[in-house]
Amino acid sequence: MTSRRVLLIEDEPGLVLTLGDRLRAAGYAFEAATDGEAGLVRAVGEPNVDLVLLDVMLPGIDGFEVCRRLRRRGLRAPILMLTARGEVRDRVAGLRLGADDYLVKPFDPDELLARMEALLRRAPATNDVVRFGDVEVDLRGMEVRRAGEPVELAALEYQLLCYLIEREGEVASREDLLRAVWGFQRPPRTRTVDVHVTWLRSKLEPDRTKPTYIRTVRGAGYKFVRTRDEVTPRR
Predict the structure, then answer these.
(1) pTM given for the model
(2) Quick check: 200 and 162 in contact, CB under 8 A?
(3) What are the structural domains, with CATH classification, of the chain?
(4) Rounded to an integer, what distance in angstroms lies between the CA atom of residue 218 and that of residue 156?
């Protein structure tokens, strides 16, 4: 079985060394970056990263901003934030930006491992592929193909598509989408969501004027649906 790959973004050398030894001993493939910029490059450039451990207090770009940018660039791997800050408002800020869990320093390595295992159990399988019509979305590889040909999606188009796919059958309001995909805390009045949905339909729907998969729920928002025959268990 392939080891789960963990990326630690942390500028404290001692902690990088300690956690690296502990995670490798636990069977993880371990990588590290010592600042926010390097962490962004490594996380986005390595689509097979399974989990990110992210320190809040980083030189240059802090962990909150790194988290926000990773989610906006389509990273789906769980993010566990590490921080010396114990204030509730800091934990809430991280979670709202897309973090999955929060651990305050100093922490017990056994608790860290337990939280990592819990996040990885909930994470999508590494070979998740969603198919509908002649479209294939490789959620792990971050690739979209139609009739076997690559489909070029802008980052926000891809994130919007993934958000809807992950909540298949559920209605997402425009406000929910503006918060989750665009990162607005107080969503403004805008037609941005509608415009991006139109672009997605033009690239993925058989007939964008009569959408089959990305449907409008009048007065409520949008939802992604497939026919029963198209839904297969994820591996």
Answers:
(1) 0.55
(2) no
(3) 5-122 (3.40.50.2300), 129-230 (1.10.10.10)
(4) 23
Q: List the chain pLDDT tens, one digit each, 235 residues.
A: 457 889 999 999 999 999 999 999 999 999 999 998 998 888 877 657 889 999 998 988 899 999 988 887 777 788 999 987 666 676 777 777 788 888 888 889 899 999 898 888 776 544 468 899 999 998 766 789 999 999 998 888 988 998 899 888 899 999 989 988 887 878 888 899 999 999 999 999 999 999 999 999 999 999 999 876 666 544 4
Write the single-letter amino acid at 151: V
Tell me the one-letter amino acid at 67: C
Buried b (16+ CB within 10 A) or exposed e, 49-74: bbbbbbbbebeebebbebbbbbbbeb
3-state secondary structure at position 64:
helix
User: Cα 161–166–171 angle (5° rounding)?
Assistant: 80
Q: Strand pairing partners for 31?
A: 7
